[in-house]
Amino acid sequence: MEPTASALGALQHKLWQLITAPSDAERADEREIAALLRGDASATPGERLGVYANAYFARLHDCLADDFGATASALGPDAFHDLVKTYLLIHPPERPSLRHAGAHLAEHLDTAPFAEIFARRCPYAADLARLEWAIALAFAAPDAPAFARDALAAVAPDAWAGLRFALTPSLQLLRCAWPVSIARERFEREGEDANWPEAPALAPEPIAIRVWRCAERVRFARISALECSALEAVRTGETFSGLCERLAAEVGDADAAAQAAALLSTWIADGLLVGVDAGR
Fold this sequence. Notes:
This protein is mainly alpha-helical. The chain has one domain (68-277). The chain contains twelve helices and five strands. The strands form two sheets. Strands 2-3-4 form a three-stranded antiparallel sheet. Strand 3 (207-214) and strand 4 (217-223) form a beta hairpin. Helix 4 runs antiparallel to helix 8 (125-140). It is elongated. The model has no long low-confidence stretch (mean pLDDT 88).
């Protein structure tokens, strides 16, 4: 007799639970496994299930190693393997696409009770993972055509005060306690086969980083705290006059407009701006 759709769905769900169980101990009931899988002289039902379970973990491990290549290199293969294992215990995939698998890895390195184990190997692992996840987000962000510099010439002088700027959807802004862009830059120079006996030596230093995609390539750059604050303000809808007031508090009234113009010029050149709104 063929199983009903509901019975088949229940069987499939149970098999999925067993394959994705985070430990062998949770797959230990051989009778339950035997009811779902057949064994033969070459392998028991439990051994067959283990093949699927190991392949499932290996696929997730490889996906996370792709997204967090510098973090994996800094920690080393054994520590990164343990990191992935502990991470998946607490944060199993929540969505069908593996693109989202690493969404909580930096948070895990920051807050997990045993994260100190990985911090001893690489004290800036959480910040580095945060940067690499920002790179992954920028890569997958929607497209938006860059704003042409010449278009600003069409803005009437009296409209500048209320002008608002749209930023590329790919833009990610980070504030880190370590200059982790150095480690990621080294990883990109050496390639995916980078083999680091130990994590690159970095001294703690608060920095800001912007990550964005331009011309089909994800880029990242260390920026000043002033630029980071300015971009955060623009992203929340700050007008050009409001931006100048913010900058004036840092650089003085005499230099605020020139500083704002310089930032706009840089953002246009780097493809960060995708539109303007005169608010009329």
